[in-house]
Design goal:
The complex is a heterodimer. By secondary structure, chain A is of the alpha+beta class. Chain A is built from 33 helices and 21 strands. Chain B is α/β, with parallel strands linked by helices. Chain B is globular, with a radius of gyration of 17 Å. The chains are: A alpha+beta, B alpha/beta.
């Protein structure tokens, strides 16, 4: 096994070096290329492990960036493609805040400039086929028997002609549909087969009347698509006579703006006509926060990779001083030395980035499934199954990796030019750096960066995104990196005696060795610090967010049992149920009261928000709402009379105050609601308007129910009630029955799943940083070969050498952990107070993530100590007499 | 004290094979100060490395105090060096992060936790080599001669039976070199320690009781030193 691992390791480093070699050969026609081949390549080979680690570090950073960006783009593109496939040739879409009555269609058709107009109903429903494992189907209800629809969409289906020739038979039932060929093939479905689909009234058997080929509409939602006659769909999905939108085609040479204005005027307030791609922009905005956070996270991975390159190049300059002296003595110019070292960075950057692109493309495929699941759980239904490889993005990722490598090589390269031929050709004697006293340039830099971070924090958002606070996080990290020499000094001073007492002279020597190459130690600890700080910041954020959300659930949503259909949560994936269960559920022994929650997606002032209705009387009786404006005594009666409340985040985003009028385009026309209160609510990160169920039914014609919330009689056990519901209705309605504890657990699970990608980013940053520790310690061992020889000669045992080197790694780890915790808490503070507030409108309390900090501290110290194992082994294996003669 | 029986050491294979020592027989009794001389490549450093257990012979046996060191594993060899051998190098080879006293104490600290008595002893040895007032100075604050004195003090701290010195004056000016040789002689005499010193300098070699000459890996001469004084060194 060990031999196999060693073989694989050699194969890997060999392959990497071959790539570096090839890249160097490509440059050999130029003089600098020849210098690179003759001077640099042998070095790369001599320190092949360090070269490989550096290349790997860059590769991981680039891989993370490319995969995250590609996955984000693929999800958005998948949504846009589905939109294009469904919208077809529509010039405009007419929408309201939510679905609206189909009678508006005639009004649209009457507007001058409208050539054609056709209604569309759309649902994402759960497929109940055996083996479907929660797969969802996009069902589009269209008027494909009318003439207008033909203009917009083509249904490439052999059966369509027969249906059109004899439409009566097809329209005879509300369960006839045609489905995508791809889906049919996947499940072996044939003509006239029954397809069980979850609807608000339970699982219904739909009959297949035809297939659509994998083109146009048939390709939407990854091919998991079905088309019905829109009125049949209204019946099957309990939609009354409501439609979701009307697709409009304009007469030739008609200005779209003019028609948009005319439609809005004809239909009244609340209706809008827009180009279809506007929905892309809304989705883009909805996912903007998630995208930005992920991109920033992956940029951090690149930053850590840059630390690694900088470290490698600095080490290389120090170790090659003698060689540089010879080169200078032989007439190599400063410019050539600068070019040589920068080119080395460029070369390592090219190979690392190329490898990163390859890893990133593979990683994106894995990541797509995870991120799509999160987006489907929280935001909207997309069926992103393929990574769309955008060559420009890949190129940009590659270029960023190379640029990072060149930039990090530049500073050490400039230092290399300062090497004096005379000085370096003398055999130098070690002179310890004088300890830093007083106020140093690094201190000044740290203070300046901290000041800049404070300013950046306060910058207003640009295009709704908190770029200033994001920049502040980087400035904080750089500021703390400059403080690291002081942290190292402090940690060493504190640890000196206890370590020596516990672990002997090896600990003392390790402690003394740390500052000998202070810059190398600082950079190594700096990279680790960034990894630790990310972990601490996200732990602080996630812990705080989870705690706030769960506290909100137990205070504001204290129902004992939650009943949903199609998914464990109401929101994006569940199927709304018809209002038929209240009576039977109330009759179950132990149940005291049943509230009915309906949540619909609406658009308010361009924000895709949620409209949530509950029976406010029941809701207010049980829940302890946290009011940020208004109070329970005045707000609740007002809402019962038809006013609304809004969530904290919506109020903050749109600067809403109690007494403001909230105008929403309901299916029954525009309604103006008075704002009666602002409460803490975590239903949607875009915002929520809360109204009474009676108002919802009156104004929005929607009596369906997403969640039945059951309050039990005092002392009643929820388990038997849960079982009774499952036995009676569970199968037919595909119910999910959760107790309060399960509901909270599920919520926690979804939050963890959403942030899993962030955890992956932290992990990569830590891995790269640990590679840095190995790299730095290998260089340290190389620098001190002679000294190690002396120690061995005067009686240091191999195990003592190993322990000494590993302890040095451990001390670096401890320093990094301390700085990383401080940085992480500051980052967590900025993340919660400046970034999250802008992105979600939620203000959550920062909680100290004690347990996570303890975990990461122990883990990083252990891992960094273990990272010293390989260099330690190399140090212990030195041949003593050779080491003593080492120059 | 030291017995070498038909000791050979070769490096490399085939065309690159080098015979650094060829069938050397040598007996050094306890308390003797032996200088080993020879031109570059004569095998003197190889011989010192073998006697100090830093290297192992290709053939032959080396017995020190009756112990065949060829039978010891790496840990045992290391402990042997730590406890029985004091090593002095040409380039002083002190640890730059420690002060003079701690450099002297280092072999003790490798052995066990240093006690107050150990510290007192280190200071006393430093005093005896003329560095009593420089004990708490860092290495980079010391001159070459002072560093070599610290190295000698370090080699004495565990009271070894044997001191092995590799060109101890090679990096010093002649006056300092002379004082170092005096110190070594005095140490050998006062502590009854066996000293083996490698040098390429005839004058330095004559500081010992006996002069062993090597050439091309062979023993070329072995004679008692008749000139008692220490001549020019450097």
């Amino acid at each position: 096994m060990r031999a196999l691992l060693r073989g694989l390791g050699r194969l890997f480093t060999g392959a990497l070096l071959s790539l570096v070699h090839l890249a160097a050969l490509a440059l050999s026609p130029w003089r600098i290329g020849r210098l690179l081949r003759t001077v640099s390549l042998p070095r790369f080979y001599e320190h092949r492990l360090r070269t490989a680690l550096t290349v790997l570090g860059i590769a991981l950073g680039v891989a993370m960036l490319i995969s995250v960006v590609l996955v984000n783009r693929s999800i958005l593109r998948s949504f846009a493609e589905t939109l294009d496939d469904i919208s077809g040739k529509a010039d405009l879409e007419v929408t309201a805040a939510a679905s609206y009555e189909e009678e508006k269609l005639e009004g649209i058709r009457g507007v001058a400039g409208v050539l054609r107009a056709t209604p569309v109903v759309q649902e994402t429903a759960l497929l109940r086929l055996p083996g479907a494992k929660g797969e969802r189907l996009l069902i589009i209800g269209v008027d494909f028997l009318g003439e207008d629809d033909e203009h917009f969409r083509r249904y490439d289906s052999a059966e369509m002609k027969a249906i059109k020739d004899d439409p009566i038979a097809f329209l005879n039932a509300s369960t006839h549909l045609i489905i995508g060929r791809k889906l049919a093939d996947r499940y072996g479905l044939k003509l006239k087969d029954a397809v069980p689909i979850q609807t608000p009234t339970g699982v219904q058997q739909f009959e297949i009347w035809g297939f659509i080929e994998d083109e146009g509409v048939g390709r939407a939602f990854g091919g998991a698509v079905a088309v019905m006659y829109y009125q049949a769909m209204q019946v099957a999905f309990d939609r009354g006579t409501r439609i979701d939108r009307v697709d409009v085609a304009l007469a030739p040479d008609t200005p779209a703006e003019q028609v948009c204005a005319a439609i809005a005027a004809a239909l009244g307030p609340g209706f809008e006509a827009n180009r279809p791609d506007r929905r892309n922009a809304q989705v883009s905005q909805m996912l903007g926060g998630l995208n930005l956070a992920l991109t920033m996270g992956s940029l951090v991975a690149i930053l850590v990779g840059m630390f690694l390159i900088y470290n490698t190049m600095s080490i290389s300059v120090v170790q090659r001083k003698r060689e540089l002296g010879i080169l200078r003595a032989l007439g190599t110019t400063k410019r050539q030395i600068l070019a040589l070292f920068t080119l080395e960075g460029f070369l390592l950057g090219c190979v690392g980035s190329a490898l990163g692109v390859a890893i990133g493309l593979g990683l994106a495929r894995f990541m797509l499934a995870a991120l799509t699941a999160s987006v489907n759980e929280i935001y909207l239904q997309v069926a992103a199954t393929e990574v769309h490889v955008d060559p420009l993005l890949v190129l940009a990722g590659f270029a960023l990796g190379v640029a990072g490598a060149v930039a990090s090589a530049f500073v050490p390269a400039r230092e290399a030019t300062r090497v004096s031929a005379v000085q370096t050709l003398r055999t130098g004697r070690f002179t310890p750096q004088a300890p830093r006293r007083g106020f140093t340039r690094a201190d000044a830099g740290a203070l300046a960066l901290a000041g800049a971070a404070l300013i950046a924090r306060a910058l207003p958002p640009i295009a709704g995104q908190p770029y200033g606070p994001f920049a502040a996080t980087t400035l904080v990290l750089l500021s703390l990196a400059l403080c690291l020499p002081r942290v190292l000094g402090l940690v060493r001073a504190i640890l000196r005696r206890p370590l020596e007492a516990a672990l002997g002279v090896e600990a003392r020597l390790a402690n003394d060795n740390v500052p000998r190459d202070l810059r190398r130690a600082t950079i190594t600890a700096g990279a680790l610090m960034v990894g630790v700080s990310l972990t601490v910041a996200f732990a602080a954020f996630l812990g705080s967010f989870k705690t706030s959300t769960l506290k909100w659930v137990s205070q504001t949503v204290p129902a004992d049992i939650f009943v949903t259909s199609g998914a464990r949560f109401s929101g994006v994936k569940n199927t709304p149920m018809a209002d038929t269960l209240r009576e039977p559920l109330s009759a179950i022994p132990g149940v005291a009261e049943v509230d009915r929650i309906r949540i619909i997606n609406i658009v308010y002032r361009d924000l895709p928000i949620k409209l949530l209705s509950a029976n406010l009387e029941i809701f207010a009786k049980h829940s302890q709402m946290t009011f940020l404006q208004g109070d329970a005594e005045t707000s609740v009666p007002a809402v019962l009379q038809g006013d609304v409340m809004v969530s904290e985040n919506l109020a903050r985003r749109l600067d809403l105050k109690v007494g403001d009028a909230i105008k929403l385009a309901a299916p029954t026309g525009e309604r103006s609601y008075r704002l009666a209160g602002v409460i803490l609510d975590y239903t949607s990160d875009q915002g929520t308007v809360i109204l009474d169920r009676a108002t919802m039914i009156r104004d929005w014609n929607d009596a369906r129910v997403d969640t039945y919330e059951l309050y039990l009689q005092p002392g009643a056990d929820p388990e038997p009630v849960k079982r009774a519901i499952e036995e009676k209705y569970g199968e037919a309605l595909n119910l999910f029955v959760l107790t309060q504890t399960e509901f909270r657990g599920e919520l926690e699970h979804i939050l963890d799943q959403t942030f899993a990608v962030m955890n992956a980013l932290e992990f990569v940053a830590l891995v790269i940083a640990v590679l840095g520790v190995v790299n730095a310690l290998l260089a340290t061992v190389l620098d001190r070969i002679r000294e190690l020889g002396v120690l061995r000669a005067i009686g240091m045992l191999r195990r003592q050498v190993r322990r000494m080197v590993m302890l040095e790694a451990g001390i670096l780890g401890i320093s990094a952990v301390i700085a990383g915790i401080v940085a992480g808490l500051v980052l967590g503070f900025i993340l919660i107070h400046d970034i999250f507030v802008v992105q979600s409108g939620w203000y959550i309390e920062l909680l100290f993530p004690g347990v996570e900090i303890a975990q990461v501290a122990v883990l990083v110290v252990i891992v960094s100590t273990l990272a010293g194992w390989y260099p330690a082994r190399e140090a212990a294996r030195l041949n003593v007499s050779d080491a003593l003669e080492y120059e | 004290m030291i017995e070498l029986h038909r000791v050979s050491r070769t490096y490399g294979e085939g065309a690159t094979r080098v015979e650094a020592l060829v069938e050397i027989d040598l007996h050094i009794p306890a308390g003797q100060f032996v200088s080993i001389m020879g031109p570059s490549g004569s095998g003197k450093s190889t011989l010192l490395n073998l006697v100090s257990a830093l290297d192992v012979p290709t053939a032959g046996t080396i017995r020190i105090d009756g112990q065949d060191i060829g039978t010891l594993d790496d840990d045992a060899l290391t402990l042997f060096r730590r406890r029985k051998v004091g090593l002095i190098f040409q380039f002083f080879n002190l640890l730059p992060t420690l002060n003079a006293a701690d450099n002297v104490l280092l072999p003790v600290m490798l052995e066990r936790k240093a006690t107050a008595a150990d510290r007192d002893r280190a200071l006393a040895i430093l005093d005896s080599v003329g560095l009593g007032k420089r004990a708490h100075h860092h290495v980079h604050e010391l001159s070459g001669g002072e560093m070599q004195r610290v190295a000698i003090a370090r080699s004495l701290i565990l009271e070894p039976r044997l001191i092995l010195a590799d060109e101890p004056t090679g990096n010093l000016d002649s006056a300092t070199g002379r004082s170092i040789l005096e110190l070594l002689k005095r140490t050998a005499r006062d502590h009854g320690t066996t000293v083996v010193m490698v040098t390429h300098d005839r004058a330095a070699a004559e500081a010992g009781d006996r002069l062993v000459r090597l050439r091309d890996g062979h023993l070329e001469g072995d004679e008692a030193v008749t000139v008692p004084s220490v001549g020019g060194v450097g």
